[in-house]
Amino acid sequence: MSRKKILPFIIIIFTIIFLLHIPAGHAQIYWWPLPPYNTLWPLWSPALSPLNAAGIPVPIVNSLTPQTVLPVQPGLTWDPDLDYPWLLYNTPAGMAFYDPFFGIDLWPPDYLNILGIPLPISLPNTWTDLNPTSTSWLSAFVPVANNAYYAAFPIYAPLATPASILGIPALIPKLIP
After folding, report:
1. Does a structural domain hold residue 177?
2. What is the pTM of this model?
């Protein structure tokens, strides 16, 4: 092969290798595994992961247990075995999550052994391919989750306002995709 034919071939190979390595670090930019369950915390939301002095997002919580205090509600976590994230809320009984298919339930569901010790979620190799949650998903499910949370824990519902009477939730999420 001549040098003129080898150079384009080498460029194509390096381009393919480069494109294959982009997804490998993609979710590590957007998601952070939190112990003890290894659920994924969104680094892309400034309210949940503000930037430090170096401009790197830092999660506002460093572990996620039923007693975790979430300074922003709803919080967001993702079990990579599911196709959608959970929206997390603080409750008097501990943390609760909103699942779009099953509604409000105490968190974590079924991730404790018989002694009550947390069972870690094994993150599959493909977790690094997760993208930020879409704006349309958040727009569709956060208001529904907020209303379900208020129905389950009415003491935390905002005072009746014309907006809440019309069904528009008064809790504005601070999740920004």
Report:
1. no
2. 0.69
Whether the bond between 169 and the residue before it is cis, its omega within 30 degrees of 0, is no
Q: Express each pLDDT in 63-117 by its tens digit.
A: 988 888 888 888 888 877 777 888 999 888 888 889 888 888 888 777 788 887 8
Token digits for 121? 């979620």
Q: Provide the domain count of the chain.
A: 1
Whole-number Å distance between alpha carbons of 75 and 72? 6
Q: Is 102 a member of any domain?
A: yes
CA atoms of 26 and 128, how far apart (whole Å): 6
**DSSP SS3 for 51:** strand
Q: Distance between CA 151 and CA 6 in Å, rounded?
A: 67
Burial of 86 (0-12, 13-18, 19+ CB in 10 A): buried
Give Cβ neighbours of residue 90 (< 8 Å, ≥ 6 apart). 68, 69, 70, 73, 96
Q: Taking the alpha carbons of 148, 152, 155, 160 in that order, is the dihedral positive or negative?
A: positive
Cβ distance 133 to 42 under 8 Å?
Answer: yes
Strands (E), 30-151: 31-34, 39-42, 75-77, 86-91, 94-99, 103-106
- Residue 30: inside a domain: yes
**109-118: per-residue pLDDT in tens?**
777 888 878 8
AA letter at 172: I
